Amino acid sequence: HIHSGDWENAMQEMEKGFNLSKDLIKTAQNPRSLEILQEIILNNQGLLSIRMGDYETAMDFSRQALDRAYELNDHRGEAFCHMFTSLAYVALENWDHALKHARLAERQFEEMDIRYYLPEVYCIQAEILLRTIGSNGAFSVAEEALMLATKTDSKSIYQEAIALRTIGKVRAQLGERAEAKKSLLRSIEILNEVNEPYDLAMSYLALAVFLYEIENDRVEALTQIECAKTYADQLGAKGILQQVEKLTQNLNPVVEE
Fold first, then answer.
1. End-to-end CA distance of the chain
2. If both were cysteines, with which of 1, 29, 110, 113 could 6 make a disulfide (CB 3.0 to 4.6 Å apart)?
3. Tally of helices (H runs) and strands (E runs) in the chain
């Protein structure tokens, strides 16, 4: 359901799973595994709510998941909860809280030597730093994300695509136009290959912003934003669609003249 964009049904199925686990806990000899399952469901509901553009609901789910992780002393779960809570704060543009939770996620993944997810955490941090202190502060973090995503022992082509998008946005602000465009195009290429429509829409949107703000190519920016809109429409990704609408409003009057 999640991958196909049938997000309403996905949310309903997660709610059913959560309610079923509550019933099973009553008679379970070892309820901990079911309690951790509840924490995972809440976390995933939070992430899906972000993608659906319902940020306040996302924050509510994230807080519940994090509270449960603390109660269960589930350090691995805590790391994921901090990562997803950070994403919720990013969506709400609460940068201080977003960075706090992203750094807590980093610390816990490091302490458990779970390095596979660090590229995603560093990408979140780089996005926050780009919005708060600028490209110089974000570059080393984005570079670290890309390096980790492409290392042999933790290689992930999906995470490489996310890191390429992030470093492309940072390089654009640094004035490295050719390298920025190359990174964004490679991100799109990979996400097409691995069939990740949500992040593909995000990368098309990032390319459209680059073409409009950095290269002043409004016509090509509109082409790329239509690609972003196509994938976001298919998924019902309201957060992306809101960004698409805002950018389109900036673009269209200039093109029509």
1. 43
2. 1
3. 12, 0
